[in-house]
Design goal:
By secondary structure, the protein is mostly helical. Helix content is 76%, strand content 0%. It is built from three helices and no strands. Helix 2 packs across helix 3. The chain starts with a helix and ends in a 5-residue tail after the last helix.
């Protein structure tokens, strides 16, 4: 059972880093450091958006409109971290 918890923690860590990469990339695109006309940047951005949009969309439906400010990534980051804490704190129960 411990190996299943470790695999779940690994998946949560991967999701965490993908979300951080998406957030940083969105900042760089908005501040015009990265250009979406470059094929590599556009491909990476499209891939990250396709991966994370199913995670963000239900959160966006629940959150009220904030006038251009998207808090869905922040809520998703907190949720992923909370799941990680829950798994770590309850791991001894599965021995």
């Amino acid at each position: 059972m411990l190996s299943i918890i470790q695999i779940l923690l690994l998946i949560l860590d991967v999701v965490w880093f993908v979300m951080i990469a998406h957030i940083i990339m969105s900042w760089l695109i908005n501040f015009q450091v990265l250009n979406l006309r470059q094929p590599l940047v556009a491909t990476i951005w499209d891939g990250l958006t396709r991966l994370l949009e199913p995670l963000y969309e239900p959160i966006r439906r629940v959150l009220p409109p904030m006038g251009g400010l998207d808090l869905a990534p922040l809520v998703a980051l907190i949720a992923v971290y909370a799941l990680r804490i829950i798994l770590i704190n309850n791991a001894p129960a599965f021995y």
